[in-house]
């Protein structure tokens, strides 16, 4: 009895507030837009027969005809992949240096990496607006240094979106890689060098392969949320930055086209399922090891 | 071995500069006297005063805190239950679906979660307001809580619970008197995580909040969409300050406790 | 001291405290306990001995109530306890990991079970005091488990499980976490406490020395079956199977075929063209039946000349010598290639051994030194 309640309560909650909403999204993605409240048809009030028979794939067909959508998907994928790669390049040296730092510093360094995670995401993105703008701190510094003659336009470009993603998701990359490198036995590097490897060879042949799981985990942790990101492109990106999260938002709030917004969501979900499954496999393998 | 090479020093310096400089700059500019946020016109706390007189912000902050306290508390209860089911539940019908529903929200884009919940609330005719935000936040943060708590439960020595049963506890008493006090740190960090996630959330709140309730992130977002604002700088500084003090205090307390425990264990080993 | 020997298992009128009747326990396709029938009597110190995975821990967990038998019944004082949950059983357990509650003091750990029974405060206090005294922990009552040493933790765990005065105390590898010296001292302490409290103890262990030292009876288990239940002396001197003989202590096993020669004596033909060994046996063996002679190394003498009176004597050569300080073990190769271990006590400080490698020697033993086993 106790066990039943224990399972039933969270189960029911998740069914009602997580699974059923998805079913609704899926269903509405198959409905037609209507000038009513709620702005789609058919609704359940039309009865079960017409409710199901009136469903079609029109919205999905529409998504393929208007190139805005597939361009947004492609551009989101490109931005997510590129920024994941940049985050890896920035994050790996930090994680490596942390793992090589003296024992007594490591806890503090860890805390310093985690700390930004506890501060508001929105504020961290916002902080870059003041830095990247035409009269922003970055341009002022570069002008003062004489590196540039005229201020650069960075804010409201895709570059700013890259910076924003790398900045906000950097801890997600650093932590798993650090965890992998921290476990790495220093004697392995010494053994490799003893067997004739140079420093660089030892790094490529021993350190990198042994931190592979951390790299994979970190990459997924950056890639997955970056793909559906909304805040960063809408604050730092410009009109030229197409990201699917932003498109969905605008479709829903500005155009009030719920069926198309739902169809956009369904496709985004389908795109995400592959990396999510790959990520979970990687995690499971790690747990088993 | 662990000497810091020039490479490591450089990586750490640049890495942490990248992580912290933007926030430092934000904090500095919050004390700028000028309305023009990019021009330094001397030190002033003017914007903090303006912020405190801005009722809209204060109201939003109050709503946000209410939502965060209530939703993180619900999320902690539900998430701890879910963690218990995941780790100790054994086999039951739909276990795979259950664990799927626990892990999926962690990787789900917020726009989708927000959209789906909004469509649900409209579908069942629930008026959007504080209540719907609480429901939404509870749902996604309970998953984070359950991940944090279940990772603690996995390493929990099960014979402690068996010992409690053996000494006459009912299974609920065993949980209340033995398991809960021992996993309390994980439950508390789960609560803090849920609280922070709720405070922080813009996207899901935007979907599920009605005109009657506006949270601080929604307010900030609409204020900064058009550009940098000195009041938001001041607000950000306050929020960064609170988090920094909180995290540092927590870290110091943890460090002191583990140091003390270490000393006591060493003392015990000497006695033996 | 004209005390009667404590041996309720030999008394047919004695009612057992615990009775396993045809108990089988399966986990999926794996059978942990296979059709087990066993009686344990009041005030016994009963040891379950066996390698890991032999089912001894499962048996104990069934007694505590954490597992239920798939088949058969377990009775405690005449009552079937299958339906009684662990928190309602008059059985307490001392866990291998001790399972001390890390957030409670030593005092609160010991009082934990008593508080569940809603006893008056004064009674709890008195009982905990008694337990602290019994386990010599008075000074540590207010410490937390991580503030005391391993040996003290072991005693807290014991005090906690004894506090409720259970009819039966289960001890799961209670000394496993202690170092060798401390373990020996604690074994005697355990026996002392068992005697003082008069509680029935069932101990699970994989350490044969520990089982032999503390237990009134030992059950040797293998793959879910009890191979033999007997007093430590009988387990050692009169094993009923090669498995038991081999599991407990060091032993020579000589396979061969039996031939009755009357008077409870049998000949063992162990190799061609050799004089058969002679051994006394309580069991009967048919002509030509395959059997094994099990004989302990310390019961075999080694000499340069053939001892004139020897009932069994065989010539061989020294293959190996293991010097253990107090003892020396000689490995002697017999004509058929069989190797026999003979042990001698090093009663004198010797600068030179009587025998060395490759020396021809005689090994000899009496007809009652070994046991004949059919399995």
TrEMBL record, chain A:
Classification via InterPro entries: MetI-like, MetI-like_sf
Segments crossing the lipid bilayer: 6-26, 79-99, 105-125, 161-181, 202-227, 258-279
Family assignment from sequence similarity: Belongs to the binding-protein-dependent transport system permease family. CysTW subfamily.
Membrane topology summary: Multi-pass membrane protein
CDD domains reported in the protein's UniProt record: TM_PBP2
Species, as recorded: Roseobacter cerasinus
Name of the featured protein: Putrescine/spermidine ABC transporter permease
BP-aspect Gene Ontology terms: transmembrane transport
Keywords: Cell membrane, Membrane, Transmembrane, Transmembrane helix, Transport
PANTHER family listed in its UniProt record: INNER MEMBRANE ABC TRANSPORTER PERMEASE PROTEIN YDCU-RELATED-RELATED, PUTRESCINE TRANSPORT SYSTEM PERMEASE PROTEIN POTH
Cell compartment(s), UniProt: Cell membrane
Record's GO cellular component terms: plasma membrane
Every ABC transmembrane type-1 domain range: 73-279
Keyword Disulfide bond listed: no
Automatic annotation (TrEMBL), chain B:
Family: Belongs to the binding-protein-dependent transport system permease family. CysTW subfamily.
Keyword Cell cycle: no
Keyword Membrane: yes
Membrane-topology annotation of the record: Multi-pass membrane protein
Cellular component GO terms, alphabetical: plasma membrane
Membrane spanning residue stretches: 7-31, 60-86, 98-124, 130-154, 174-194, 232-253
Keyword tags: Cell membrane, Membrane, Transferase, Transmembrane, Transmembrane helix, Transport
Protein's cellular compartments: Cell membrane
Source organism superkingdom: Bacteria
Domain ABC transmembrane type-1 intervals: 61-253
Main location per the UniProt record: membrane
Protein name per Swiss-Prot or TrEMBL: Ornithine carbamoyltransferase
Organism of this sequence: Roseobacter cerasinus
GO molecular function terms noted in the UniProt entry: transferase activity
A Pfam family per the record: BPD_transp_1
GO biological-process terms attached to the record: transmembrane transport
UniProtKB/TrEMBL annotation, chain C:
EC class (word): translocase
Annotated catalysed reactions: ATP + H2O + polyamine-[polyamine-binding protein]Side 1 = ADP + phosphate + polyamineSide 2 + [polyamine-binding protein]Side 1
The EC number(s) this enzyme carries: 7.6.2.11
GO CC terms: ATP-binding cassette (ABC) transporter complex
Record's subunit section: The complex is composed of two ATP-binding proteins (PotA), two transmembrane proteins (PotB and PotC) and a solute-binding protein (PotD).
Residue ranges of every copy of the ABC transporter domain listed in the record: 18-248
PANTHER family assigned to the protein according to its UniProt record, in alphabetical order: PUTRESCINE TRANSPORT ATP-BINDING PROTEIN POTG, SPERMIDINE/PUTRESCINE IMPORT ATP-BINDING PROTEIN POTA
The organism of origin for this protein: Roseobacter cerasinus
Keywords: ATP-binding, Cell inner membrane, Cell membrane, Membrane, Nucleotide-binding, Translocase, Transport
SMART domains: AAA
Name listed for the protein in its UniProt record: Spermidine/putrescine import ATP-binding protein PotA
Pfam families with a match to the protein in the record: ABC_tran (PF00005), TOBE_2 (PF08402)
Family classification: Belongs to the ABC transporter superfamily. Spermidine/putrescine importer (TC 3.A.1.11.1) family.
Gene behind this protein: potA
Primary role: Part of the ABC transporter complex PotABCD involved in spermidine/putrescine import. Responsible for energy coupling to the transport system.
MF terms (GO), sorted A to Z: ABC-type polyamine transporter activity; ATP binding; ATP hydrolysis activity
GO BP terms, alphabetized: putrescine transport
């Amino acid at each position: 009895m106790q066990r039943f309640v224990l399972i039933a309560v969270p189960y029911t909650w998740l069914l009602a507030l997580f699974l059923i909403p998805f079913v609704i999204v899926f269903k509405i993605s198959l409905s037609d837009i209507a000038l009513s409240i709620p702005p789609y048809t058919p609704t359940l009030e039309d009865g079960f027969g017409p409710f199901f028979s009136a469903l079609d794939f029109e919205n999905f067909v529409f998504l393929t005809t208007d190139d805005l959508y597939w361009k947004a998907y492609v551009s989101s994928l490109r931005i997510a992949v590129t920024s994941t790669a940049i985050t890896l390049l920035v994050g790996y040296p930090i994680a490596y240096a942390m793992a090589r730092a003296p024992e007594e510093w490591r806890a503090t360094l860890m805390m310093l990496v985690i700390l930004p995670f506890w501060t508001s995401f929105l504020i961290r993105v916002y902080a870059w607006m003041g830095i990247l703008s035409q009269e922003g701190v970055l341009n002022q510094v570069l002008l003062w240094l004489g590196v540039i003659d005229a201020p650069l336009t960075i804010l409201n470009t895709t570059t700013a979106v890259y910076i924003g993603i790398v900045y906000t998701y950097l801890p997600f990359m650093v932590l798993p890689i650090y965890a992998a490198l921290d476990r790495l036995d220093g004697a392995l590097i010494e053994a490799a060098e003893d067997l004739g490897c140079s420093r660089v060879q030892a790094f490529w042949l021993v350190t990198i392969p042994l931190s592979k799981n951390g790299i994979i985990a970190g990459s997924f942790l950056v890639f997955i949320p970056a793909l559906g990101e909304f805040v960063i492109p809408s604050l730092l990106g410009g009109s030229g930055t197409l990201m699917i999260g932003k498109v969905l938002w605008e479709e829903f709030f500005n155009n009030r086209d719920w069926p198309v917004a739902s169809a956009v969501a369904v496709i985004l979900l389908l795109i995400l399922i592959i990396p999510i499954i790959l990520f979970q496999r990687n995690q499971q393998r790690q747990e088993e090891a | 071995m662990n000497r810091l090479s020039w490479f490591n020093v450089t990586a750490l310096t640049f890495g942490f500069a990248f992580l912290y400089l933007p926030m430092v700059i934000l904090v500095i500019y919050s004390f700028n006297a000028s309305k023009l946020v990019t021009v330094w016109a001397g030190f002033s706390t003017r914007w903090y005063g303006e912020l405190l007189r801005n009722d809209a912000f204060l109201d939003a902050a109050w709503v946000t805190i209410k939502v965060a306290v209530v939703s993180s508390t619900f999320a902690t209860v539900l998430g701890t239950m879910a963690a218990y089911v995941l780790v100790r539940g054994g086999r039951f019908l739909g276990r795979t679906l259950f664990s799927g529903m626990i892990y999926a929200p962690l990787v789900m884009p917020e726009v989708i979660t927000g959209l789906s919940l909004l469509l649900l609330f409209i579908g069942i005719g629930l008026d959007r307001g504080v209540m719907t935000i609480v429901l939404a936040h509870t749902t996604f943060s309970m998953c984070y809580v359950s991940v944090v708590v279940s990772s603690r439960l996995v390493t929990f020595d099960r014979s402690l619970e068996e010992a409690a049963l053996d000494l006459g506890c009912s299974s609920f008493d065993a949980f209340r008197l033995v398991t809960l006090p021992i996993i309390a740190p994980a439950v508390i960090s789960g609560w803090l995580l849920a609280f922070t996630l709720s405070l922080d959330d813009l996207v899901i709140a935007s979907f599920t909040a009605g005109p009657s309730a506006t949270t601080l992130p929604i307010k900030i977002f609409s204020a900064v969409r058009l550009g940098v604002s000195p009041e938001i700088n001041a607000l950000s500084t306050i929020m960064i300050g609170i988090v920094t003090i909180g995290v540092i205090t927590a870290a110091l307390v943890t460090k002191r406790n583990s140091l003390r425990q270490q000393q006591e264990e060493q003392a015990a080993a000497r006695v033996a | 001291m004209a005390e009667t020997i404590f041996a309720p298992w030999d008394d047919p009128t004695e009612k057992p405290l615990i009775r396993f009747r045809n108990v089988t326990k399966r986990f999926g396709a794996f059978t942990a306990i296979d059709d087990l029938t066993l009686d344990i009597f009041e005030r016994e110190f009963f040891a379950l001995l066996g390698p890991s995975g032999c089912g001894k821990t499962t048996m104990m967990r069934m007694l505590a109530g954490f597992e239920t038998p798939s088949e058969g019944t377990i009775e405690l004082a005449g009552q079937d306890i299958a339906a009684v949950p662990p928190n309602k059983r008059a059985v307490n357990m001392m866990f291998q990991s001790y399972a001390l509650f890390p957030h409670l003091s030593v005092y609160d750990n010991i009082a934990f079970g008593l508080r569940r029974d809603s006893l008056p405060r004064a009674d709890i206090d008195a009982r905990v005091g008694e337990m602290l005294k019994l386990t010599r922990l008075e000074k540590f009552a207010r410490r937390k488990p991580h503030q005391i040493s391993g040996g003290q933790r072991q005693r807290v765990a014991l005090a906690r499980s004894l506090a409720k005065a259970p009819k039966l105390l289960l001890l799961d590898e209670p000394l496993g976490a202690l170092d060798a010296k401390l373990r020996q001292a604690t074994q005697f302490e355990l026996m002392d406490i068992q005697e003082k409290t008069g509680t029935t103890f069932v101990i699970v262990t994989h350490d044969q020395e520990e089982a032999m030292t503390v237990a009134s009876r030992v059950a040797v288990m293998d793959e879910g079956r009890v191979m033999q239940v007997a007093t430590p002396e009988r387990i050692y001197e009169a094993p009923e199977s090669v498995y038991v003989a081999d599991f407990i202590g060091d032993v020579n096993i000589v396979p061969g075929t039996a031939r009755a020669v009357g008077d409870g004596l049998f000949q063992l033909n162990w190799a061609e063209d050799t004089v058969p060994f002679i051994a006394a046996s309580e069991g009967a063996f048919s002509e030509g039946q395959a059997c094994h002679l099990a004989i302990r190394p310390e019961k075999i003498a080694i000499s340069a000349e053939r001892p004139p009176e020897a009932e069994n004597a065989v010539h061989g050569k020294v293959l190996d010598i293991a010097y253990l300080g107090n003892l020396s073990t000689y490995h002697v190769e017999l004509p058929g290639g069989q190797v026999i271990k003979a042990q001698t006590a090093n009663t004198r400080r010797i600068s030179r051994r009587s025998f060395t490698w490759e020396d021809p020697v005689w090994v000899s033993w009496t007809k009652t030194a070994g046991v004949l086993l059919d399995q």
